[in-house]
Amino acid sequence: MFALVLGFAGIAGAQSSGTPGPGAYDIDSLLTEHQLIKGQAARTDVIAWDSTSSVHLTQVETSVEMHHHAKHDENVWIIRGAGRLTLGDQKIKVKAGQFIHIPRGTPHAFHNMGSNPAVVLSVFSPGFDGKDRIYEDKAGK
């Protein structure tokens, strides 16, 4: 996400169905088309991509591990659910309707506090291809 892969789009096992083009997207339809698999902690799908940014729909059943992005800024809107966001040294309770800005280099993680998956929309700049995800437990090794 919040990379939610908050860096919510920075989630192992991220899914993509190619490079989506321009269009209007319905969140409920996207969630129906891209369902979490039983036991999957989180899932991220690319829903839009252009030369300057990418948009990712992330569902978080449990949590997203602490990580950062060295070359990407991330902006996250929480669509559904609530949780605890770790943003640098801060621990913040977040819920649907909130916006989080995560500058590049900022460690972040998310823990879902609800009984249903949290759903977030993440916008990365520049476009995120999944390679700029550095997990904190491996950052110094």
Textual characterization of the structure:
The chain is mainly beta. The protein has a single domain, classed as Jelly Rolls, CATH 2.60.120. Helix content is 8%, strand content 43%. It has two helices and ten strands. The strands form two sheets. A five-stranded antiparallel sheet has the order 1-2-9-4-7, covered by helices on one side. It has a five-stranded antiparallel sheet with strand order 6-5-8-3-10. A hairpin with a 2-residue loop joins strand 5 and strand 6. The longest helix has 7 residues. The radius of gyration is 13 Å and the shape is globular.
List keywords for this structure.
Jelly Rolls; mainly beta; disordered N terminus; five-stranded antiparallel sheet; globular; 141 residues; 43% strand; 10 strands
Summarize the structure.
The chain is mainly β and 141 residues long.
Secondary structure layout:
Blueprint: H1 27-33, E1 42-49, E2 54-60, E3 63-68, E4 73-80, E5 82-87, E6 90-95, E7 99-102, E8 108-112, E9 118-125, E10 134-135, H2 136-139
Antiparallel strand pairs: 1-2, 2-9, 3-8, 3-10, 4-7, 4-9, 5-6, 5-8
The backbone outline, from C-alpha atoms, is globular
What is the string of SSEs from the N terminus onward? Answer: HEEEEEEEEEEH
Overall pLDDT metric: 86
Q: Radius of gyration over alpha carbons?
A: 13 Å
Taking the sheet with the most strands, its summary is: 5 strands, antiparallel
N-C termini distance = 24 Å
Classify the helix fraction into a percent range: under 10%
The overall strand count is 10
Q: Within the CATH hierarchy, at the fold level, what is the topology? A: Jelly Rolls
Query: Helix/strand-derived class?
Result: mainly beta
Please give the oligomerization state of what you see: single chain
CATH architecture: Sandwich
Total number of helical segments? 2
**In order across it, which strands form the biggest sheet?**
1-2-9-4-7
CATH class: Mainly Beta
Poorly predicted segments: 1-17
Indicate the proportion of strand residues: 35-45%
